[in-house]
Amino acid sequence: MNIETIVAALITAGFAFLGVYMSNRKQAALVAYRLEKLEEKVDKHNSVVERMYRLEEQVKNLQAEVKLIHNA
User: Fold this and answer.
1) pTM of the model
2) Exposure b/e, 33-42, CB count within 10 A at least 16 = b
3) What is the DSSP secondary-structure string of 2-68?
4) Nearest to 58 by CA among 69, 46, 66
5) What angle do CA 20, 26, 27 make, to 5 degrees?
6) Whole-angstrom Cα distance, residue 20 to residue 16?
7) DSSP 8-state assignment for residue 70
8) What's the DSSP call for residue 1?
9) How many angstroms separate the CA atoms of 18 and 9, rounded?
10) CA distance 67 to 56
């Protein structure tokens, strides 16, 4: 092989590596962004579940009070 072929191959490999690296970096940033948004949705959902649990407990207590008043 002559030196020109080797240099051309190295330059081509360098540009290919650079393209893959930049693409991978952009994809990783997109995944991180989407993961952050998903975490926000999960936190919001968990908040709703906790509030519903408290409401169910309150309803259960109120129903017990109504039964006591009704039976008295």
Assistant:
1) 0.61
2) eeeeeeeeee
3) -HHHHHHHHHHHHHHHHHHHHHHHHHHHHHHHHHHHHHHHHHHHHHHHHHHHHHHHHHHHHHHHHHH
4) 66
5) 85
6) 6
7) H
8) -
9) 14
10) 16
Can you read off the two tokens belonging to residue 47? 């908040």
Q: Which two tokens stand for residue 50?
A: 């906790």
Cα dihedral 28, 31, 32, 36, rounded to 10, equals 180
Q: What is the pLDDT along the chain (72 residues), one digit of tens a residue?
A: 799 999 999 999 999 999 999 999 999 999 999 999 999 999 999 999 999 999 999 999 999 999 988 887
CA 52/CA 68 separation, integer angstroms: 24
* 22, two tokens: 């930049």
